[in-house]
Amino acid sequence: MYPDLSYVFHALLGTEPDNILSVFKTFGFFLLLAFLAAAALLKHDLRRRERIGQLKGKVVERMPGGTVTVWDYVFNGIFGFVLGYKIPFVVSNLGRFREDAGSVLLTSNGWWWTGLLGGALFAGYYYYLGTKQQASGMQKYTVYPSDRVGPITMVAALGGILGAKFFAIIEYLPRFFNDPIGVLLSGDGLAIYGGLIGGAAGVMLYARSHKIKVLPLADAVAPGLIVGYGVGRMGCQFSGDGDWGIVAGAQPDWWFLPDWAWSFTFPHNVLNRGVPIPGCTFEFCTELPQGVYPTSIYEVIMAFTIGAALWALRKRLTNLPGLLFCVYLFLNGVERFFIEFIRVNDRYDVLGFALSQAQLIAVGFMVSGALLGYLAWRRGTVVN
């Protein structure tokens, strides 16, 4: 496993791990790749839908050269302050940051004077830009949905984080009541379905505020959403973040993948969970005592397969707004419902069945996808 970049270089070049490169976390890197992959696929399909006239641009008025507003000063001043406030504090607490990044980043601790300096520099830079610009009267511009992929991605990320944290708190209420501040500020404990619901809510509100048709946008989002999920699960596998299954059974004769894809002990996992690895002197020197199902690998395969299917269907279903997203909901629910049977998770008694929170939401996804998909199908015909 590679909890951070220093372990990647150790595996490739033999350098010592736990050095300065350990501030770059493997899961965070794949999370960034997931957002980039989803944004790229979204932009590509939005442009296609704009070319065929399904999505329209919005005409806005803007002062040429007068692009720096009061909000630019406010936002970038705050952004510069946060960077200046936290970065020097992180550098001065690298050891603690390597062990638990959330305990350093998600706290009120920092350096005030460097924060004020950072805020002044960022705001000053935009003031400089503003003084160089010359206004020459208001002009009209057409802004298309594909031009808004950046803000859409940011809104999805923010809504996803809030939703993930909310659903994680609901699932582990006793832990929250014991330490509400610690749980809120912790970087762990994020529910993936909560992130999906929170991100979807944020994007829907953003779309309505900018008069973007919600159903075609949802269809355009669907392939990138499941592919991004798959990329994120790659980060789970490479870092060993606890997204693993129950103890693996005996490997069957028909198994054609590598042995580690059936049973894996996640050595050097980022959680430092398990038993000590003999002779290891690194910071992350544990592995699970028994091989478990590497469920993140299975989810990567299923996510990319679903993503390929949605990408292949997107043109045929263009004239049925919302149907592609319904297909995504159904297949996503099927994938998560069945993978949960071999994952480690808390279970609830539901009508005599022991189901996890994710399975309950997955059932909702499957039912919603089937019913809403049927209604979308009734509204039109498939494009040949």
UniProtKB/TrEMBL annotation:
Transmembrane segments: 20-42, 70-91, 111-128, 149-170, 190-207, 214-232, 296-313, 320-339, 359-377
Pfam families xrefs: LGT
Organism: Neolewinella antarctica
Keywords: Cell membrane, Membrane, Transferase, Transmembrane, Transmembrane helix
Species lineage: Bacteria, Pseudomonadati, Bacteroidota, Saprospiria, Saprospirales
UniProt EC number: 2.-.-.-
Protein name as catalogued: Phosphatidylglycerol:prolipoprotein diacylglycerol transferase
Source superkingdom: Bacteria
Any one GO molecular function term: transferase activity
Family: Belongs to the Lgt family.
